Amino acid sequence: MTAVNPLNRQTIRWALALGALAGLLAVMTGAFGAHGLRGVVSARGLDVFETAVSYQMYHAIVLVAASLMPTVGLPRRLLVVACGFWLAGIVLFSGSLYLLVLSGTHWLGPVTPIGGVCFMIGWVLLIIAALKKEQR
User: Fold this and answer.
1) Domain-located, residue 1
2) Among candidate residues 1, 134, 4, the one with its CA nearest the CA of residue 67
3) What is the pLDDT at residue 125?
4) I need a surface site. Which of 38, 84, 101, 114 has the fewest CB within 10 A?
5) What 3-state DSSP class applies to 49?
6) Count of beta carbons in the 10 Å neighbourhood of residue 39
7) Rounded to an integer, what distance in angstroms lies between the CA atom of residue 74 and that of residue 5?
8) Cα–Cα distance measured from residue 61 to residue 82, given in angstroms and rounded to the nearest whole number
9) Three-state SS for 132?
10) Do the beta carbons of residue 52 and residue 97 sit within 8 Å?
11) Residue 87 lies in a domain
């Protein structure tokens, strides 16, 4: 196993902490949706809310996984940027869907695809990081 320098340890901590926070919030939000919104919003609204929770959890998990990737030699800078895009995706994609369902405000609809694009950019950056050697 490669030794982790202090700069990588810092990257590991913030990605791990934010991924864990996003996961915790996804569980809490999912429980709220399952128990607090049934009968309050339409079945379609519940489906949209569940989609937001699912995508938030998927990306919380990848943030936690990404926090460990510098230890196996993946380029830290690309991972940092990818994590930033995944966090933006959580806020823009899942956040806009939560607000759409809870407030009924439809002007948020165009924000959701921007969050989806952020998710995709993060994944593309991970592909690039996986194929690139770490510069030491």
Assistant:
1) no
2) 4
3) 97
4) 38
5) helix
6) 6
7) 13
8) 13
9) coil
10) yes
11) yes
Q: How do residues 68-103 score in pLDDT, each as one tens digit?
A: 888 888 888 999 999 999 999 999 999 999 999 999
- Rounded distance between C-alpha atoms, residue 77 and residue 125, angstroms: 10
pLDDT beyond 60 at 51: yes
Domain that holds residue 84: 6-131
CA 52 from chain center: how many Å? 10
Integer Rg of the chain from CA: 17
Q: Is residue 108 part of a domain?
A: yes
Would you call 40 exposed, middle or buried from its count of C-beta atoms within 10 A (0-12, 13-18, 19+)? exposed
Model-wide pTM > 0.70: yes
Is the pLDDT at 31 greater than 70? The verdict is yes
Q: How many residues does the chain have?
A: 136
d(CA 132, CA 120): 18
Q: How many helices and strands (H and E) does the chain possess?
A: 5, 0
* pLDDT surpasses 70 at 45: yes
